[in-house]
Amino acid sequence: MSEAIADDAVTQTPLQKVWGEIEAHGLERYVAEMDANGYTVIPPELASPNGLCERLLEAVMDVAEKRNGVRPDLETGSTHENFKGRFQALAGGDGDSPIGDLMQSLLFEGEVFEEALMNPVLLTMASYLCGYSVVLSSMGCFMKGPNVSSFFLHSDTPLPSPLPPHALVCNLTYVLTEFNKANGSTAFVPGSHKWCRSPEGDEAKVGEGGNPKAIAVAAAPGSLLCWHGNTWHGAFNRTAPGLRVSVPVYMSRPYIRTQEGLVGEIPDEMLDRNPARFAILTQQGVAYGYKSQDDSMARGLRAFKYAKAYADEDGGPAFGAQSLYS
Fold it and tell me: What is the pTM of this model?
């Protein structure tokens, strides 16, 4: 490598670095679609290497059986038909849960979930949207059987309108079973991320008599469904037999309050078997949230340790005190 190239590599900006990753993974088309429409579907051949989709599906079936005492029925969806549960209230009336069942905090349920988080394609899209200091906010699993309630349109950005134009959060969802309208697919309003506000009133309705701009996304099992945090989305009800299964990986910039509190909660064996970025993704580089001055000092030292390890290993953008505390 020439000295000029080496110098250029040292001074490479984060945008240059992430664009190199986009090109390396063949994601240019999907980034362009996301910029234009607010969402994109990355196909299985790029999004789910080494049978990741099949292994994730088997893993979430196991988790569901362990937590609920019965193995989900993928073929008929009878185990989740007209499921009510704790999210019935989202229907706004006497309907069933518009999202089906949500199993939360999956990262600790097996190494396949760690692999899903460290998927280079997923990380490239997350880095493009929310920067290299992006952290995991939550990882869960939706299982939805035949139901009557649609899920209203909303944005994922946890702020009141107006919203900033850049993504504070992003959603990267592993599609584990076929997505289409009859199967209760996610509904999107293309281009809505550019409006920098959340839907209001009748704009938020999905389905018959709802927002006419809302469309059902189509995606094959193994796809990765990615969207900007401002994008209006919801879900159609499922009219077909079977289950709609997905694993949303919800990511945020480190100064946004995360859904899962992971600081200091990741076992050493998980950190040791993964690259240094895994610690950053799982919030170990976050210093805020201290309870006293001594705790602040301890958290700051811990955060710097993991941030430096990431910068040393990756050779990419370094994390100084500013990125740890902002």
Answer: 0.93
